[in-house]
Amino acid sequence: MSNAVMDKPPVVAPLPGGALKQPRLPRWAPAALALASAGIGAGVGLAAGLASRVQWGLIAAVLYVVATYVLTTAVEGKRQAKDRLATSLVWVSFLIAVVPLVSLIWETIARGVKVLDGYFLTHSMNGVITLQPGGGIYHAIIGTVEQVGLATLMAAPIGLLTAIYLVEYGTGRLAKAVTFFVDVMTGVPSIVAGLFVLSFWIIILDFGYSGFAGAMALAILMMPIVVRSTEEMLKLVPNELREASLALGVPKWRTILKVVLPTAIGGITTGVMLAVARIAGETAPILLLVFGTQQINNNPFDGAQSSLPYYVYEQWANGNEASYDRAWAAALVLIAFVMILNLVARGIARWKAPKTGR
Q: What is the number of other CB atoms lying within 10 angstroms of the CB of residue 261?
C-alpha cells in the first residue's frame, strides 16, 4: 500500500442539511412557552367556565409539558426532547408543591395581621369575653415555649445518645430491638402518646394537669425523629475520619465527641429543629394533659397551661368573628415561631460546622 493512500485523511460525514452544529432552541423558549401556556390555560378556563385558578394552572402545566416535548422533538430531536420533558416535569412538580404552601402562608398572613399587634402579644385572655375583640396570646406563648423547651431537653439528649449507640456501638439483638421500637414510635399517633402520659402520670401517679405532662407526651413524639435524623447524619461521616483518629491513639469516645459529632453537627441541629417544628403544632396531647387556661401560668409543673395550638383550637371552636381573627393571628405567630427556630438552628450549624479553609 502506497504512502499516499495511507496518509489520506478520514472522511467525516456532514450533519444533515450541511449544518455544523446541532440545532437548539433559544434560551428564551422555555419562558415563552410557559407564558403562552399560562395564557392559553387561563383562556380555556374562562371559556369552559372553570372558576378555580388551580384548574387553570393544571391546564397550563399540561400544555407546557406537551408543547415543550413537541417543539423540542421537532427542533432538537427525540433524545434532547426526553431530557427537556424530564426537566419540565420536575419544574411542574415543584410548582405544584409550592403553590399550596404559598397559598397557606398568604392566607395566614392576610387574616392574621388584623389583630396582631403589641397588645395582642403581651396580654392574655383573662376576663375577655370571647364574642368581643380584645385579649391576646401571651399566656399561650409562655406555655408553648416552656412545653417545647422541656420536651427538647428530654428528647434531644436521649435521641442523640440512642443514635450514637446504633451507629457507633450497636450490634446484635439489642440494636435490632432498639431500631424496631424507634420505627414503631415514629408512627405512633400523638393522641396515643397523650393517653399514655394521661394514664400513667395523671391517673396512676395522680400528679395533675400541667405543662410538664404535656411536655412528656411531646418528648415521646420527638424522640424517634431525633434518633432517625441523627443516625442518618452520623452515617454520612466518612469512616476515614474515624480510622485516622483511632490510628493516632485517640479513644473511641473522644473520637465521637471531637471528630464525628462536630462533622455532623449541622445535620443533627437541623434534625432537632425539624422535630421541634413537628411537636410545636401538636394539639391532641395538650388537650388531654395541659387542659388549657385563660390566665398566665409561668410554672409548667403546677396547674393548667395554654399553648399556641390549643389557643388556635379554642378560639376557632368559639365560632364568632372576633375569635376567628384571634385564631388566625395565633397561627401566624406559631408559623413565625417555627421559622425563627429554624433560622437559629441554621446559624448554630454554620457556627459549629468544621472549618474547611486553610
A: 18
**75: amino acid identity, one letter:** V
Tell me the residue length of the chain.
Answer: 358
The shares of helix, strand and coil residues in the chain, as percent rounded to the nearest 5, are: 75, 0, 25
Distance of CA 121 to the CA centre of its chain: 26
State the DSSP string of 110-178. HHHTTT-SHHHHH---TT--TTSS---SHHHHHHHHHHHHHHHHHHHHHHHHHHHIIIII--HHHHHHH
Q: Any residues with CB less than 8 A from the CB of 252 and at least 6 apart, and which?
A: 168, 246
Could you give the CA distance from residue 42 to residue 25 in angstroms, rounded to a whole number? 25
First-to-last CA distance in the chain? 62
Residues 171-224: tens digit of each pLDDT? 888 888 998 999 888 888 889 999 999 999 999 998 888 999 999 999 999 999
Q: Assess contact for 290 and 307: CB atoms under 8 A.
A: yes
Buried b (16+ CB within 10 A) or exposed e, 233-245: bbeebeeeebeeb
Other Cβ atoms less than 10 A from the Cβ of 32: the count is: 11
210 DSSP β-pair partners: 303
Residue 285: count of CB within 10 angstroms of its CB: 31
- Per cent of the chain over pLDDT 90 is 25
Q: Which pLDDT score, from 0 to 100, does residue 1 have?
A: 47
Mean pLDDT, residues 228-241 taken together: 90
- Residues 158 and 183: their CA atoms lie apart, in Å, by 16
Span 316-327, pLDDT tens digits: 988 888 899 999
| β-bridge partners, 303 | 210
Contacts of 346 (CB under 8 A, 6+ apart): 269, 270
Rounded-to-integer distance, Cα 212 and Cα 208, Å:
10
Span 268-288, average pLDDT:
87
pTM of the entire predicted model = 0.78
Whose CA is closest to 124, among 297, 320, 281?
297
Asked if residue 227 has pLDDT above 90, the reply is yes
**Measured distance CA(29)–CA(94) in Å, rounded:** 20
